[in-house]
Design a protein that fits this description.
By secondary structure, the chain is an all-beta fold. 2% of the residues lie in helices and 53% in strands. It has two helices and 20 strands. The strands form two sheets. Strands 3-4-5-6-7-8-9-10-11-12-13-16-17-18-19-20 form a 16-stranded antiparallel beta barrel. The two termini are 24 Å apart. 35% of the residues are buried.
Length: 397
């Protein structure tokens, strides 16, 4: 353990790295975000700066039935090194802060400069234990599914396969009607250059004693011509559209089952869920040009199951969680339909050394782009070996 303490006339500040927390497990989902605090707010923990670091080695590669489509991916395979510096603290005056800085090395050669991003940069002030305001680059964990949220929170919020946390630049109000009652959140999203209004959203989570949960998000966002990436779409930046998403989840101690659906109204631009670096449909630029048909064209259904074998038997303590999720994009569209799947597993080599594997098949049937094949299918395999030092409140990797 490394402890550095400084004393001033105003207050004591304690910087803490390490500890003997035997309950910590880097393979668990630990983020509460809008549903609570990810830092200890008790008086004895005020002004304690909690530090952690997670280092990961990533390998990913794509294969498919069409060489042309695979060759046009941003990258067919990559090896990436990543390090996250994670900090959190509870301050006097009922204010908490969170920061996660990610250092990414994606190119060959030690002379290449690493890319640095702020994955989380958040100030959280609470008025009571069940009401708070958050602003900055927020972390949002809004459901049991990794797919739920990309419609209601708007797709530019960062999202990776296998991860439930979304990165969302916003000012957000969170609250709960009681300790065990419904949770609500509402936010406003800005644009930066120049500063302006991007959209707003609101959602609720209804928990039931049986373990059943109902998640609901609605949003209103501006259309931006620069985001459409299609010359077939013409509009000005004064247009707006609406989004709605709902999920029903049944949560048990050892497993979770869920289904969700969502769509947009009055939207023009690229189809949702087609903009990821490994989405084969991305290069075909499927776009919605008729606002009246956007609800049908953008309608997405998804479902999945998440199982925790380590909670079922001591013989499976190394296998923290496995899951299978799938979504149907454009199921009612006449131009294309895509089926995205994600099978994943998190394996504890130790509690702090974790091997993660994602397998993400995609099947596309399209007639939108006559210059591309009608039937496209492929698989992306992703491996991550990560090690964590310290006790972070949130893990983004």
């Amino acid at each position: 353990m490394l402890i550095i303490s400084t004393t001033t006339k105003a207050q004591d500040v304690l910087l803490k790295l390490g500890g003997n927390d035997t309950t910590f497990n880097a393979a668990e989902d630990r983020a509460k975000t809008s549903g609570g605090f990810d830092v200890d707010t008790s008086k004895s923990k005020l002004n304690v700066i909690n530090l952690a670091m997670q280092i990961a080695q990533d390998v990913a590669f794509a294969t498919g039935n069409q060489k042309e489509v695979i060759d046009n991916l941003p990258f067919k395979s990559y090896y990436r090194q990543r390090a996250d510096l994670i900090m959190s603290a509870a301050l006097p005056g009922r204010t908490n802060i969170y920061f996660t800085g990610a250092f990414l090395q994606e190119k060959e050669g030690v002379k290449d400069a690493a890319r640095v991003i702020a994955a989380n940069l958040e100030i959280e002030h609470y008025f009571r234990k069940n009401m708070k305001i958050r602003f900055g680059r927020l972390g949002n964990s809004v459901s049991e599914s990794q797919f739920f949220g990309r419609i209601g929170l708007e797709e530019t919020s960062a999202h990776n396969y296998g991860r439930k946390i979304y990165i969302n630049d916003a000012v957000e109000f969170d609250g709960a009607f009681s300790k065990t009652g419904p949770i609500y959140f509402a936010g406003i999203k800005p644009v930066f250059k120049p500063v302006g209004f991007k959209g707003m959203y609101a959602g609720m989570v209804f928990p039931f004693q049986s373990g059943l949960k109902l998640h609901y998000i609605v949003g209103m966002y501006r259309n931006f011509e620069s985001d459409s990436v299609s010359k077939k779409v013409y509009f000005d930046d004064k247009e707006s559209y609406f989004a709605c998403e709902v999920e029903l989840a049944q949560k048990w101690k050892k497993a979770t089952l869920y289904v969700n659906a969502g769509s947009t109204a009055g939207y023009r631009g690229l189809y949702y869920h087609t903009s990821g670096p490994f989405d084969f449909i991305r290069q075909m630029r499927p776009a919605i040009t008729d606002k009246e048909s956007s609800f049908k064209e953008n309608f997405i259904t998804a479902g999945g199951v998440r199982i925790f074998p380590a909670k079922m038997s001591k013989n499976w303590k190394f296998l923290q969680q496995v899951g299978l999720e799938g979504e149907i994009v454009g199921g009612f569209s006449d131009d294309f339909t895509a089926v995205n799947l994600c099978a994943y597993a998190r394996i504890n080599l130790t509690k702090r050394l974790v091997l993660t594997y994602y397998c993400t098949p995609e099947f596309v049937d399209q007639s939108f782009n006559k210059m591309k094949p009608e039937k496209v299918s492929g698989v992306v395999n992703f491996f991550r070996l990560s090690v964590t030092a310290g006790s972070p409140g949130r893990l983004y990797m």
